[in-house]
């Protein structure tokens, strides 16, 4: 027959062996490549509601500390950051204040005897609602958005 080329048994075996080798390599290699690349492709949500436990754990009128951690994945590097603040309940109002001073980011502490948040770095003070009482901070303490669902208090974490 013109144009027809007969494939030898040896050629046929070589073609089939190469084909099966390629398939087996793909079956074994692709998951491994996916496993190695997946950390670089993963990102963590930078906007999330963080549960802080039952609202009843936070007594009225007393700033009560809370904290949570967030991990950030950057390629193969993972960092864990801690955040915190104070829950202040005033009637039905729930205020979640950051404990980061708005001057140069030191952490404030609540001093019951003074009824103030005190920043130890430059002697600043904030009232219970987070407004500046004295010192260099240019703004009140930042407040997290809050919500209560089925008795559980959440704060909204927004990165950046
Ligand atoms: S960092 Fe708080 S007063 Fe300066």
Write a structural description:
With 160 residues, this protein is of the alpha+beta class. The protein has two domains: 1-41; 47-158, Rieske Iron-sulfur Protein. Helix content is 21%, strand content 41%. The protein contains one helix and eleven strands. The strands form three sheets. The protein has a four-stranded antiparallel beta sheet, with no helix packed on it. Strands 5-6-7-8 form a four-stranded antiparallel beta sheet, with no helix packed on it. It is elongated and about 95 Å long. The model has no long low-confidence stretch (mean pLDDT 89). It binds FE2/S2 (inorganic) cluster. Residues 101, 103-104, 106, 119, 121-122, 124, 135-137 line the site of FE2/S2 (inorganic) cluster.
- CATH hierarchy class name of the largest domain: Mainly Beta
Secondary-structure content class: alpha+beta
Cα distance, first to last residue? Answer: 74 Å
Radius of gyration: 30 Å
Binned strand content: 35-45%
Helix content: 10-25%
In short:
Helices cover 21% and strands 41% of the residues. With 160 residues, it is α+β, with helices and mostly antiparallel strands.
Write the layout of secondary structure elements.
Layout: H1 9-41, E1 47-54, E2 64-74, E3 77-90, E4 93-98, E5 109-111, E6 116-119, E7 124-126, E8 132-134, E9 143-144, E10 146-149, E11 152-158
The structure holds FE2/S2 (inorganic) cluster (FES).
